[in-house]
Design goal:
Layout: E1 4-5, H1 16-28, H2 36-43, E2 45-46, H3 50-55, H4 59-85, E3 90-94, E4 111-116, H5 118-127, E5 134-138, E6 156-160, H6 169-182, E7 187-192, H7 195-201, H8 203-209, H9 223-226, E8 234-240, H10 255-266, E9 271-277
Helix pairs in contact: 1-2, 1-4
């Protein structure tokens, strides 16, 4: 089987790290998380994984893999709960990469949309092609014309994992308000963290991009102050994303990781934010 080549320092490379994290977590914590598709896709990609394999031996990187998995599990729970009330709804994965969270929620009736930048969708179309109810859409999330490609007549649940940290606050505010107007009765779920955590996460990227003020980028210190005031007709809530949906008391999880999870949800305000757009 011919493997898909991904260059170093390319836009496409950004999809490799979370994919490898899901593969690593499947191997380390199979009782908590299993993504066999990630394991399969790693073998179908022509990329030098040696650096990631070195990092995978460190405690920090292994905890990062657990973070990736818990975030995906949390978003799946929210999407599946929405489908219980709206079985024919659309599930829309924003900034999808090679993530299959939406497909893993498939109830056999819903519509699934995966949205990302054109370079990423090129990879996805090769490795994870469309089907009758699954569509891959190349789009910039800040260009709201992608709204027209979503059939939300039976409801819609948007999910986004590791995406909004790279957006400016003003752009997120515009996006959320546009979604609230266009998709009343819909739901948006995404991961967020406070400004302290975002500074750490974006440190290298910010330096390379020549950005002087990280404060302009999207972070959530508290939903009451940072999101709710933007949205007059929406209900906003949140849960810690490491321990809010799962207590991580599985034997495979080291006690150190549970402590780090507690610090993450508390000190870093790592959370899943849920926005219900009112009708």
């Amino acid at each position: 089987m011919e493997r898909y080549h991904i260059e170093k320092n390319s836009v496409q490379e950004t999809i490799v790290i979370p994919l490898y994290g899901r593969k690593l977590c499947t191997e380390l914590f199979p009782n908590l998380f299993e993504d066999r598709k990630a394991v399969e896709l790693i073998d179908r990609i022509d990329y030098d994984f040696s650096e990631l394999e070195k990092r995978a031996k460190s405690t920090t990187y292994r905890f990062g893999a657990l973070e990736v998995a818990m975030r995906e599990n949390d978003l799946m729970i929210e999407a599946k709960n929405y489908l219980k009330e709206h079985p024919q709804a659309a599930i829309v994965n924003l900034g999808c990469g090679l993530d299959q969270t939406a497909e893993n929620c498939d109830n056999g009736q819903c519509r699934i949309y995966n949205i990302d930048l054109p370079d990423v969708i090129d990879v996805r179309n090769t490795l994870l092609p469309e089907s009758e109810r699954v569509k891959n859409i190349a789009a910039d999330l800040n260009d709201f014309s992608w709204f027209d490609k979503i059939n939300a007549e039976n409801g819609v649940c948007f999910i986004a994992a590791g995406v909004f940290y790279y957006f400016r606050k003003d752009d997120i505010k515009k996006l959320f308000n546009a979604m609230a107007r266009r998709f009343p009765g819909g739901k948006l779920c995404f991961d967020a963290a406070n400004e302290r955590a975002v500074k750490i996460m974006l440190k290298t990227w910010v330096k390379e991009a020549g950005i002087t003020s990280i404060a302009d980028y999207f972070s959530v210190n508290s939903i009451e102050n940072d999101i709710s005031p933007w949205l007059k007709n929406a209900a906003v809530s949140s849960k810690g994303y490491m321990l809010g949906y799962n207590n991580l008391k599985d034997k495979s999880v080291p006690s150190l990781f549970r402590l780090m999870s507690k610090l993450g949800d508390g000190f870093m305000k790592m959370q899943i934010v849920r926005i219900d757009f009112e009708r």
